[in-house]
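seq/struct pair 1
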Amino acid sequence: MALDYRILGPLEIARDQEPVAVSAPKERTLLLQLLLYANEHVSVDRLATAIWEEQPPRSAGKLLQLYVSNLRKALGHEAIATAVGAYRIDVEVPELDSLRFLALLDEGRSARARGHIRVAADALRRASALWRGTEVADGGAGGEAARLEELRLECAEERLTLLVELGAHDEALPELAALCAEHPLRERPQVQLMLALYRSGRQAEALEVFREARRTLDEQLGLEPGEELRSLERAILRQDPELTPPAPAHSTLPLPIPRTQLIGRERERTELRALVQRDDVRLLSLVGAGGSGKTRLALAVAADASELFADGVALAELSAVREPAFVTPAVASALGVTERPGEPLVRTIAQAIADRKVLLVLDNFEQVVEAGPFLLELLGAAPRLTLVVTSRRVLHLSGEQVFTVQPLPAEDAVALFLARAQADNATRALPPEDLSDIGEICRRLDGLPLAIELAAARARLLTPRQLLER
């Protein structure tokens, strides 16, 4: 079974989400060195220097063999390969957080080069989130550890630069201020902090950042600020129109706020959240009988996953739509896209969301399944779009992931009935025989949430036994 190695912070190893203990300091140092240079041969001399610094013992080679043997016992015999005068760990990108970080950093920079600013910002956000501190595991020293730590700073700077560029200067301000305080000699975050402050209407503070940066550079390095800082100061002083924040991008409509608490469905919510995080799941269909709670579950999943989607979550409500041609305007409205004269609305939507990371819920799709090709067109135009569709039947579209929404288990069904029946009087106690009758009501209603809620609404006038007799 694959191991999960984490070195961007304290060294951690897990197998199937269960921790794998490697506690001996020298063995941890050895493992860290192999992971820093994953998929490469690491010489015995380099490993000995990392463990014992400049004074390895004469028995270093045999001790390394012992440490490797102990690591193999913990990780598996195949985890560490032996070569002539060297050792090696072979890992795939998903198995090592530093490789995932480098892949996301490269993805973000590539997206930036193509002009996909939001896609780039999201990739860099995910890359930064992999760090569980500011240093490589166990204070790892050496060239590769230092390189990763420098790349962490570059990733943070580039991500914050993109946030300011996107007009999210208020969001970027706290982290920019902290980054400048931690690294006062790095000019790039100083530039972005000045710009973010100016765009927030805090011109005097922006100019004070410049003065403090100039003072620090002079005192510590005997240097003047670079041209970028000086040019920005001049632009702020003359209130250059070029510094005006960009117009806000299309915004999605907010999700409706449920009037009641969702009862049960913890397992489904966990599984669905995991599915929408997967890069290979972009069309997720929640399929179930009418009244099974598909809509409520989809909205809960969208709310649960909202922080995973940089450009928001949206709902296209299709219950009143009967013609497939009207699905496109409903989607445009949900995504905040306005029709342009003389341009097909499908193209307008595709252009608007091409670089946006959005989760779109399409509710009650079973009555417009002929619009399925439109969904595929959207997915093809927007590589960061994820669709969650509720339907009474499978759509049979390419790439569709089907999740069957089952009736509520007996315990959750009873809890739902009680919650709705006692909505007007939460302190009202029910005798034990009523609980038995409620269980039978829920069983006869096949555990369907909508039917249970309708029955519970009548419980304010009728006892559970009277409901059963009807």
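seq/struct pair 2
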Amino acid sequence: MPSKTPIRSPARYHALRALHRIETRAAYADYVLQALRREVALSPRDQDLLTTLVDGVTIWRKTLDWVLARYVRGGLERLDPWTRNALRMGLYQLMFLDRIPRWAAVHETVEVTRALAGEGAAALVNAVLRRISARLEQGRPPAPFPSLAEDPVAHLAVRYSYPEWLVRRWIARYGVEGARALCRFHNTPRPLSLRVNRLRATREEILADLEARGLRARPGAYHPYIVLVEGGLDLTTWPPYQEGKVIAQDESAAMVPYLMDLRPGLRVLDLCAAPGGKTTAIAEGMGDHGWLIAADAHFGRLRRLREHALRMGFTIIRVVQADGRRPFLPEWADRILIDAPCLGTGVLARRSDARWHKQESDLIGLVAVQRALLESAARMLRPGGRIVYSTCSLEPEENEEQIRAFLRDHPEFRLLSAQGKVPSPFVDAEGFYRVLPHVHHMDGAFGAILEKLPAPPAGFG
């Protein structure tokens, strides 16, 4: 049980608690941090350090463990989770947080280790961190990484803290330097991206509000209603958010509804709608006139969608709990969005632990689900209507290969180009919408427009 001994660094104390919980309960970092914020009252400065430590250790875990294995006799696996995570937390500060003096990083980490794990663990943490700190003081790296020339996969995986299977796939597609750039992008903190609800506000109004609050904000590079915010902003207490003028959404995701060629009066079905970022963008694109059914299999996630729709004032959204793999509205829709479940390898920057919760073998099940959604949507689409299939994945099995396979089996469909619907830098040679994080400097995305050919006139042929 954690000690109740008063300590000088509550941020480190609770960060170590969080890291222990993440490892021992296989918990998601975001959920653990949210629970801790409800449980303990910290100053804004300590809140910032808590988040930095938990997210930083989670992201850089492979790199940290590689270094620590050179200093811990018998390997990290023999240590208890408190000690192992204390070493990671201390080393993260030494390697990545230049603003913290090395002596303070070592001393404060040892103190919280003593409070939570006892004197023996504190002695080990102190000895290891002091040895590493001494090397850094001498201008020497704490440990050599695998050779880039001899083993580029191992080098990038250790240097940038990624699973080797993922690095191997990226090198095969983008080359070593492209894979390196992609790894760097996903390890860099991203600004908060907001989409302005243009039925209630203008981008200029939101930018002016943020500037008046002393926050750094700028317009998105491509989407006309995106605002990027640097620094801390508590959305839940910010009046423009409460008044439904904005929603958190990355620029690449916000451009997907543009592929749908929306207008008032359409019948639209969003098959994987929760938590509602794209659903609300669709309602906005329809001027809040028409029919929009937002379906999702997960009841809990639909609650957030309802909250967003109510907060933002959209009246045409009808929320339905349904498994999109099973048709429930035969030939009803003019437009269908399939924002398909996927590996999410284009948005790893948004969640610190996402890379560790994925396996290459997951592709098999995900590809099957995606194909089932496409088959179901094909039966619910009216002739002349369009399906927009989108993912936040970079993996070809979930993107272009999925679409090619569907088109081979469905001659009644054709692929339309995204040209003219989104900015041209995001349209590839086949007409797909494609955003590459290391090229376009935003979250990765893929989109395809599939048109169902009109039925021939009666008696034709």
